[in-house]
Amino acid sequence: MNLSERLRELRKEQKETQHQVALGVGITEHQYQRFESGKQKPGFDNFCALADHFGVSLDYLAGRTDER
After folding, report:
1. Residues in the chain with pLDDT < 70?
2. What's the pTM?
């Protein structure tokens, strides 16, 4: 599973909208949509913020492991 698929999966598990995730992470909704669609990859700070927001490791978010 790649990053964009993982983001979508985690967001739906938490029953959040893209707007809610973007607010929680401190980015624009459009920017988050680009991450989730795979059109853009987050920089390190946003990558860390997304992992923190969803309560998972960076490796899990990146699809390198299935252990959260």
Report:
1. none
2. 0.94
